[in-house]
Specification:
Elements (H helix, E strand, L loop, with lengths): L8 E3 L7 E3 L7 H4 E3 L14 E5 L15 E3 H4 L4 E4 L3 E4 L10 E3 L7 E4 L3 E6 L5 H9 L1 H9 L12 H6 L7 H46 L7 E3 L7 E3 L3 E4 H4 E3 L14 E5 L15 E3 H4 L4 E4 L3 E4 L4 H4 L2 E3 L7 E4 L3 E6 L6 H8 L2 H9 L12 H6 L1 E4 L2 H44 L17 H4 L8 H13 L4 H13 L10 E4 L2 E3 L1 H15 L2 E3 L9 E3 L8 H8 L1 H15 L2 H20 L6 H10 L5 H4 L2 H13 L11 E2 L7
Parallel strand pairs: 4-9, 15-20, 23-27
Antiparallel strand pairs: 1-2, 3-10, 4-5, 6-9, 7-8, 7-10, 11-12, 13-22, 14-21, 15-16, 17-20, 18-19, 18-21, 23-24, 25-26
């Protein structure tokens, strides 16, 4: 459904606000709340009284609060901001203000607290207005004008209190303010859940990317290759034709600047500070410096050298790259790099870079770090003595091509997920502004469960499709039974749970209702949206298996956003039933359901004899080899007990009746 506009509007008298509903007012902020309430109301408390303490880092950008800190009132009564439960605070200093730091204060010890002076505190004159006021302060209609009024220079610009006090706020009647706050609490929670799913997807893609890289450079691409012990505990078995080498035997570290000793001092070469080296191997090559300026005090590298950041957190984050397209083929940069030059007859630069991106190299390197805090570094000797198995040069080329291709796919999927997050955040901001300015009328919809249409809050091209979400759920619950069980979950999701948007076209296969395009979309969607990998068997007759990421969480919010909470829970109940009856039970129930439904849809008799006869004689010749009449009677009784009964509206299955005549 969509949310309507108000029936009548009037000019607000505020240029940036435009029109507001005709019954709304536009008072200044100081008329509806008190700014920065006085600390005098807690002067009666003993100085050793512990109260909540909130530095800026304890205030989140989505309204969250870290309430773990306390301080005695005697230590904070001077030099800190004072607030109480029910107050609304927002950061007033850049960049915290622009980033949205602020919250509705709740849960303080004793209901009182102190914190950073870089917040403005609003105390609504009517306590019930706190939620509405919080939404107002995070909306663009407040944030954008406030940003324009900031005073000060550089990183110390602040929103002046005078601006806040005189700011004209769109102010509906009290009951309406509560309705708007309730509406936004619920609808932004839905959007935030979808954002969280995309963030989990990005994390899963990163984890999967790392696993693929690590497996390729430690085990190779051929799962049937003969193996041998590597002699290295963490590495274990490697392909029998690979050679274990330490990097010092196949590469040189930190080549000498003497290579360019005879170059003209004014020669411009590439210059790469740490920020010019990406975590994905990318380089920003727009900077150059004369050799004379960088010959001393910087790290030297040459075209084709491979660099690794050695300082924390740059090392852990993956900073490093193959040096390419350098001006004059030479560059200098941060001293926090280790430079490795592979012996090209044994190993390519690109292959070494993939080794450096593998999880074992990063984990072992992190364990070798020395120093304290933010100055911990990976020693050169760790890289010099790092040992791993090396394939022949031609096999390195195959592995590089494989990893390049998969990395592009992982990056594409992560980019799509990030785009979806940005779009959702944009729509979240638009929804908040529309509600608090009266552009939409939520009075008649605040008691309904599905207020905003999916198209409004969900970017269809980037967020998970219904097929992807159903595939992810079905694989998680029924994947151990194989692909056919996952397919039957798709059929029954559409037929029994009412997921008509799956749009399956089901044929009567030996193992039950089957739609090749649907199962492919379910599996591909589960991979692209949730990192669930389908392993196709190499040998005929072997089952399909699935790899579900260890931290995977079922996408219930995405599912309920797509089909509504009632149908989503009906589907979960369906999966729970199927999971408990085994592979043969799932096949029997899905086939019985399909025959039964087809009979009802054709207005034919659907008693036990007719249904069982349809399975054994009209479905597929293989059915009589799998099931006897007693088996089908058992599962029909189970279906009746569990109210697993079709009504004739499920999709029909094709090639019926006379197919095997």
């Amino acid at each position: 459904m969509s949310v309507p506009a108000y029936p009548e509007y009037k000019e607000s008298g505020v240029a940036w606000l435009g029109v507001v509903p005709s019954h709304w007012d536009c008072p200044p902020m100081k008329a509806v709340c008190e700014l920065n309430p006085s600390k005098n109301e807690v002067t009666y408390l003993p100085e050793d009284t512990e109260l909540s303490f909130l530095p800026m880092e304890a205030i989140g950008e989505r309204g969250e609060l870290d309430l773990s800190r306390t301080r005695p009132i005697g230590e904070v009564s001077n030099g800190y901001s004072y607030f109480a439960d029910g107050d609304v605070v927002f950061a007033k200093v850049t960049p915290c203000f622009e980033n949205g730091k602020g919250a509705l204060i709740q849960g303080l010890i004793g209901g009182r607290g102190f914190g950073t002076t870089e917040v403005t505190v609003l105390r609504p004159k009517q306590a019930s207005d706190a939620h509405f006021l919080r939404w107002l302060t995070v909306s663009r209609i407040f944030r954008d004008p406030a940003t324009g009024e900031m005073q000060g220079a550089g990183g110390l610009k602040r929103v002046p209190e005078s601006f806040v006090a005189s700011f004209k706020v769109p102010w509906p009647p009290s009951a309406e303010r509560n309705s708007i706050a309730t509406f936004l609490d619920r609808e932004t929670a839905k959007i935030d859940a979808l954002v969280a799913e995309q963030e989990r997807l990005i994390a899963l893609l990163k984890e999967k990317r790392q696993a693929v890289i690590s497996h390729a450079v430690t085990k190779g691409l051929n799962p049937h290759a003969p193996m041998k012990g590597s002699g290295i505990e963490w590495l274990g078995q490697i392909p029998a034709h690979w050679d274990v080498k330490r990097l010092r035997h196949v590469a040189s570290l930190n080549p000498s600047k003497s290579e360019i000793a005879d170059w003209e001092p004014e020669t411009e070469v590439s210059f790469l500070p740490m920020e010019a080296i990406g975590e994905d191997g990318g380089l920003s090559l727009e900077r150059t410096r004369p050799i004379a300026d960088v010959l001393t005090g910087y790290t030297y590298f040459h075209e084709g050298d491979v660099t690794v950041a050695k300082i924390t957190p740059c090392f852990e984050n993956g900073k490093g790259a193959v040096m390419q397209q350098l001006v004059q083929g030479v560059g200098f940069g941060t001293t926090e790099l280790i430079v490795v030059r592979p012996h090209q007859d044994f190993m390519s630069s690109a292959y070494l870079d993939w080794i450096f991106r593998s999880q074992p190299f990063r984990a072992l390197g992190e364990g070798s770090m020395y120093g304290a805090g933010g100055q911990k570094r990976v020693p050169d000797d760790f890289v010099r003595n790092f040992a791993i198995g090396f394939p022949p040069r031609h096999e390195q080329t195959e592995i590089i091509a494989y990893l390049d291709r998969l990395a592009r796919r992982f990056d594409q999927l992560a980019g799509e997920a990030q785009s979806a997050i940005l779009l959702l955040q944009e729509r979240r901001a638009a929804l908040i502004s529309a509600a608090v300015t009266g552009k939409i009328d939520v009075r008649g919809v605040t008691s309904q469960s599905n207020v905003i249409s999916i198209d409004y809050v969900r970017p269809a091209s980037n967020l998970p499709t219904l097929r992807a979400v159903v595939g992810a759920y079905a694989i998680r619950e029924l994947g151990p039974m194989g692909r056919m069980a996952v397919m039957k979950a798709g059929y029954l999701a559409e037929g029994h749970a009412g997921f008509g948007d799956l749009n399956g076209r089901y044929e009567r296969y030996a193992a039950g209702p089957y739609d090749s395009s649907l199962i492919e979309a379910m599996q591909n969607g589960a991979w692209e949206s949730y990192g669930i990998l389908t392993n196709e068997p190499r040998d005929e007759g072997k089952p399909v298996t699935y790899n579900v990421p260890k931290d995977y969480q079922p996408p219930f919010n995405a599912l309920s956003a797509l089909v509504g909470e009632d149908r989503a829970r009906r589907f979960l109940a369906l999966l729970s039933l199927l999971k408990g009856i085994g592979r043969d039970g799932v096949e029997a129930v899905a086939t019985l359901y399909a025959v039964w439904n087809d009979l009802l849809a054709a207005s034919k008799t659907a008693d036990s004899d007719t249904i069982c006869n349809g399975v054994l004689n009209d479905w597929h010749p293989e059915k009589t080899k799998k099931f006897k009449r007693a088996d089908l009677d058992h599962w029909l009784a189970w279906m009746h007990r569990n109210n697993f009964v079709p009504d004739g509206t499920a999709p029909s299955t094709h090639h019926q009746g006379d197919l095997f005549a």
